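Work Package 4 report. The design task specified in the project plan requires that, given a folded chain encoded as structure tokens, an amino acid be chosen for each position. We show below one input record used in the internal validation round.
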């Protein structure tokens, strides 16, 4: 699986932390999805807002998010310890970065 790396401005990071850092996993529900549910289901979900519920993510989450919160984060360790093989990546799959393989550069430490 590929991951899109995004740099997040400080003010946006604070908003993300509000929703994503209390536990190892969370489920975010958009108000628009909630509004489209029957009243009984909306009320049931509203009762568990900000509560931990048993959930197995169905084996695959809709979106995976890894919040890098320290220099020791798993993403950074893997990113800088492993030598990227861009030729292999380009042959196997395009990650949608809008750059050709020739334009890709290795990360600078």
């Amino acid at each position: 699986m590929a991951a899109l790396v995004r740099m997040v401005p400080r003010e946006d990071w604070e908003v993300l932390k509000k929703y994503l850092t209390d536990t190892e996993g969370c489920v975010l529900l958009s108000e628009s999805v909630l509004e489209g549910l029957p009243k009984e289901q909306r009320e049931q979900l509203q009762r568990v807002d900000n509560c931990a519920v048993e959930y197995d993510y169905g084996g695959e989450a809709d979106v995976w998010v890894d919040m890098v919160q320290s220099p020791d984060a798993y993403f950074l360790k893997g990113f800088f310890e492993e030598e990227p093989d861009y030729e292999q990546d380009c042959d196997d799959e395009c990650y949608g970065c809008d750059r050709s393989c020739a334009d890709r550069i290795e990360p600078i430490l």
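The radius of gyration is 19 Å. Validation will be extended to a larger panel in the next phase.
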